[in-house]
Amino acid sequence: MTSSAAERQAVAQERAAEGPGAVLNGTPRRTPGMPVWPGAPTPLGSRFRVGPDGVAGTNFALWAGGAEAVELCLFDESGKETRAKLTELTHEIWHGFVPGVLPGQRYGYRVHGRWDPWTGARWNPAKLLLDPYARAVDGDFGLPPEVYGHVRDWPQQQVADTVRDDRDSAPYVPKGVVVHDDDDWTDDRRPKTPWADSVIYEVHVRGFTKLHPGIPEELRGTYAGLAHPAAIEHLVKLGVTAVELLPVHQFAHEDHLLRRGLKNYWGYNSIGYFAPHAGYAASGTRGQQVGEFKRMVRALHEAGIEVILDVVYNHTAEAGELGPTLSLKGIDNRGYYRLQSDARRYADYTGCGNTLHVVQPQVLRLITDSLRYWVTEMGVDGFRFDLAAALARSMHDVDMLSPFLAVIAQDPLLSRVKLIAEPWDVGSGGYQVGAFPPLWTEWNDRYRNAVRDFWRGALPDVRDLGYRLSGSSDLYAWGGRRPYASVNFVTAHDGFTLRDLVSYERKHNEANGEGNRDGTDDNRAWNCGAEGESDEERVRALRRRQLRNLLTTLLLSTGVPMLVAGDELGRTQRGNNNAYCQDNEISWLDWELLEDPGWKALFELTSRLIELRHRHPVLRRRAFFSGRAHSADGLRDLAWFTARGTEMTEQDWYAPAATLGMYLSGRDIPGRDERGAPIVDDSFLAVLHAGDRPVSFVLPAPPWAEEYEVVVDTSREEQGDAPGETHRAGSAITVPGRAVLLLRVVG
To answer: Which of 433, 139, 399 minimizes the C-alpha distance to 289?
Structure first.
């Protein structure tokens, strides 16, 4: 039975009166004196401020609902620890103000309570715990036996998690750092790019900058490196409007990786939801990483580029019952994590050992406080939520009326930033593509699958492709959602790079040390006739053409396109489709690719397509197509054509086909501009042909057009300013094998 708050308060006061002879884990230890004033229960975390009588110090506040006592632990430069009990308890928050504690001070907590794993209670004061609200973290997370709350190497592994380990973990774990927040962002100008105008670029801070020749060596791999003019120049030339950063919350490395001499490179193993990952800081880890991150955001904003964070609130680095005790597990295991009916075990909807219990008020508060912090104090513009379906679960099932989604919907700050869901988790009923409420956009994996299958010749017909190219109305045309609810992507960090997608059909993950068992086998890839790198020019040329086809399809589709950093350069991971543990040349961008004329041409085509998208509102519609005629001549806002130049019939949609024509009318764009005037644009015809042989395509006759001008032809290695050929409507043109033609309507 959980003790009441009053009982815990009495226990805390009793232990505080024990004096210097206090006993920890049966061993007498002297606790040096440290003045602790009552302080305040809010805000949570450590906050430097001026206290009573103008005395500077830091207020510490920690939610630990079922704990019996909490000790604040301060560490000097030599690592010597000074402890003080927090005796104030307000609404399950332990708090105190310590005069004289200044920014840069390292600290942690020891939390006392019952050790009873059978009921989910795993308190162990021998373990130094990271403050969940720490704004900065100093030190690396290794995983020696001392950082486990249980005896990791107990001979009977089936009960190892029930045997408490009383060894002190403090020498082996990072510490929180007191940070002085003195930045009000008054000089920052957020780009505030509308969703429909956005082009997202998924990027890894370290991987993007590590080998960049224009970035000073001491800044490579860091926030400062991404803020460097040489890095931003590439983003501006490419034309993207937002960077989506792979996780930058403080994260830890898994034990199984450390044992193999590897590390978690992607960072989907968070342990500090308020702290920028210290490993990406060039300026220092005693709070300097906070200022460095802010300067990076400012630099990107000045270039007109928004910053979206990939955040992992579904699980933490503490894994399951056999995982380490680093923070939440030792603060209140039952209060933070979803447990099974057998409370020794964790409910795992993430595949990572644990799942945060977002239904609990304190967990919901932790997440929303973190989100608001990154928006208000760190300047970010939005978030992509890893395994978002896990956050939307109520007690068990995914629920679109869940507390998390409800809180976000009504929050006056968070409801106005960019919100992207990865709309699935690994639990039962976890696949939720198209189901998130109207505020949200979603990673659309059905778009990815359809486009990949079309270009490798694996679609039975073109019905699904038609939906994906035109904004996925079958998924998102409900509840006031718009086409930009669909984040369209062909590749992401998880899986093959774009170049590998056309170079490999099988994963090659041997470097990960898991016997090539990790990573998906469902790659929907085609290697163009040879597995891996090839010296045969025919194969190499075909692969470059397929890359042009895939990128052109993505950037002409209705919805929000997402590119993966390096795909525009022909980056390869040598067939590794799960490079989460490869912090090396496998994952880092090879900037020398730009010196190759073929890869430079790919970059230039990508940049040109993005610029075309920015210039033409018909390519970034804010409302779904109606498919109906809006004028007497019968011209519709969207029409589909066969290679015969006739409109698609229902029978055509169900027939096998490798060719599809998509007509986008620029005169029937819904909405008005900022001055209330109608939006009018050019009209375009896109012809996608996945067959390996050329095909004759009859251009739609009037009223669709009088003449057509070729704007993009992916059969060409070099596009030039524009291919520029013109063709009469009603005439037949030859579309080369495996190519996209984009034609502008003339007359």
So the answer is: 139
Q: Hey, what amino acid is at 372?
A: R
Three-class secondary structure of residue 612 per DSSP = helix
**Tokens for 501?**
């997608």
Reading the block at residue 80, the tokens are 């010597």
| Strands of the 45-50 sheet, one edge to the other | 45-50, 56-63, 93-99, 88-90
Phi/psi class of residue 155: alpha, beta or left (left: φ > 0; alpha: ψ in -120 to 50)? alpha
Whether pTM exceeds 0.85: yes
Contacts of residue 625, defined as CB under 8 A and 6 or more positions apart, other chains included, come to 470, 471, 473, 558, 637, 638
pLDDT of residue 679: 87
Annotated catalytic residue 71? no
| Rounded Cα distance, 322 and 565, in Å | 36
3-state secondary structure 412-433: CCHHHCEEEECCCCCCCCCCCC
Is-catalytic flag, 386?
A: yes
| Identity at 76, one-letter amino acid code | D
Collect all residues with Cβ–Cβ distance below 8 Å to 574 and sequence separation of at least 6.
Answer: 500, 508, 532, 586
Partnered with residue 660 across adjacent β-strands are 688
Contact 330, 149 (CB under 8 A): yes
Q: What are phi and psi of 343, to 5 degrees?
A: -65, -5
Tens digits of residue pLDDT in 618-651: 999 999 998 887 776 778 999 999 999 999 999 9
DSSP state of 656: -
Burial of 198 (0-12, 13-18, 19+ CB in 10 A): buried
Encoding tokens for residue 82? 């000074």
Q: Say how far apart CA 619 and CA 79 lie, in whole Å.
A: 59
Q: CA-CA distance, 246 to 310, in Å (whole number)?
A: 5
Helix (H, G, I), strand (E, B) or coil at 625: coil
Alpha-carbon gap, residue 274 to 370, rounded angstroms: 6
**Do 507 and 494 meet the contact criterion of CB atoms below 8 Å apart?**
no
Q: Which of 386, 425, 464, 567 is catalytic?
A: 386
Alpha-carbon gap, residue 388 to 392, rounded angstroms: 7
* Closest CA relative to residue 683, chosen from 724, 744, 632: 744
* Dihedral, CA of residue 451, residue 456, residue 462 and residue 466, to nearest 10: 20
Q: What is the pLDDT of residues 98-146, one digit of tens each?
A: 999 999 999 999 999 999 999 999 999 999 999 999 999 999 888 999 9
Catalytic entry in 131, 292, 306, 422 = 422
Rg (CA), the chain: 28
Residue in the structure block whose two tokens are 């880092």: 588
Q: In what order do the strands lie in the sheet with 659-664?
A: 638-641, 659-664, 684-689, 739-746, 707-713, 726-728
Tell me if residue 541 falls in helix, strand or coil. helix
Domains of the chain in start order, with CATH, are 627-746 (2.60.40.1180)
Task: Flag residues of the chain having pLDDT under 70.
Answer: 1-33, 632, 720-723
Strands 136-138 and 441-444 come out as unpaired
pLDDT at 8: 40
